[in-house]
Amino acid sequence: MNSAYNVIMRPIVSERSFDLMEKGKYTFEVAKTAPKEEIAAAVEKLFNVHVVKVNTMNVSGKKKRVRYQIPGTTRSWKKAVVTLAEGDSIEVFGSQQAAE
User: Keywords in UniProt for this one (predicted)?
Assistant: First the structure.
């Protein structure tokens, strides 16, 4: 993995990931072969923050029925929860605020 863009695929958008953001933890989909050191370096390079800890997990594909009721599975992927140093933050959606 050479580029940070090849390591970090996309941020994960869910209710749980938004709750973790308040604690300084950010969730990303990452390359399946990327080790924790590369993930930390990529986040620090892309977002200009200091990474304290990286937790990774492999998410297995779910069983689904595809065309004509043929059994299949969704793709498996790797998730990383990155803990940032106190005071650092990442603007995932820019300055978008919740509508009231």
Answer: Ribonucleoprotein, Ribosomal protein, RNA-binding, rRNA-binding
